[in-house]
Write a structure and sequence with these properties.
alpha/beta; Rossmann fold; about 25% strand; globular; binds magnesium ion; about 260 residues; 10 helices; 9 strands; binds adenosine-5'-diphosphate
Length: about 260
Amino acid sequence: MTALFCSIKGLSVRYGWETALDSIDLDLIVGERVAIIGESGSGKSTLARALAGLLPEEARIEGKISWPALGHAPAPGRDFGFVFQDPGTSFNPVLTIGEQVAEGPRQHLGLGWRQAFARAEELLERVGLPQPKNLMHAFPHQLSGGQRQRVAIAAAIAARPALLIADEATSALDVVVQAEIVGLLDSLVREEGMTLLFITHDIALASGFVDRLAVFRSGKLVEAGAVHSVLSSPANSYTAALIASHRDLSTPPMITGRAS
Ligand SMILES: Nc1ncnc2c1ncn2[C@@H]1O[C@H](COP(=O)(O)OP(=O)(O)O)[C@@H](O)[C@H]1O
Ligand SMILES: [Mg+2]
């Protein structure tokens, strides 16, 4: 059975004369992994911010976003976890890793510091970081980019959000680390039953593990569909060009099956 997690209807976002998103209709199913694909400036981050209610004041918004599966108005941090491209800017340089990961459980799960720290340590282990006990006392600058992104993921899922939004979360990493982080997101999302919005300019990377692709261009949703159908018979010429630019995508990749 499929349950509707989120329904976006006629969503437009404008900044002055600039249209960042133009009449977007898109549904997300509970537990589904959807990739938002598009070049820089196509409106991907605007969509993520609109979903999370985090658009800047100057944005003019039309349309409707509803959350049938949540049953309440969504709150960032509790209902959504975010992972951004550069965790360097989302971490506070003077707080320890432990303090930063414990903040979510403290705020949103009502845990005291002691329990929140215990949960943080558990989460660091969960995201595959070595020696989580020691890491709790480390500062962000002491970690590699890949390790920082694992910490960012731990922080993002700390309050058990229903939706994880990864906005170019692997774009600053080299390909090997990128593959590791995608593997981690894939298994966490399955195990926790989260819905995933994986935002990237890289159609090849996303196609290896998501269920559905939504291709954006200049603020418009030009095509959406199951990965294999979009790759094998793209309906839009822009999508076809994107696919053609990746030699390894001209034959559809193996789609990983869902864990039962
Ligand atoms: N705060 C803002 N003020 C003005 N224009 C913005 C703002 N945020 C985004 N835009 C514009 O909206 C468009 C979409 O941006 P964005 O959603 O960040 O694209 P993407 O994430 O796909 O690179 C771009 O043309 C960008 O310049
Ligand atoms: Mg962006």
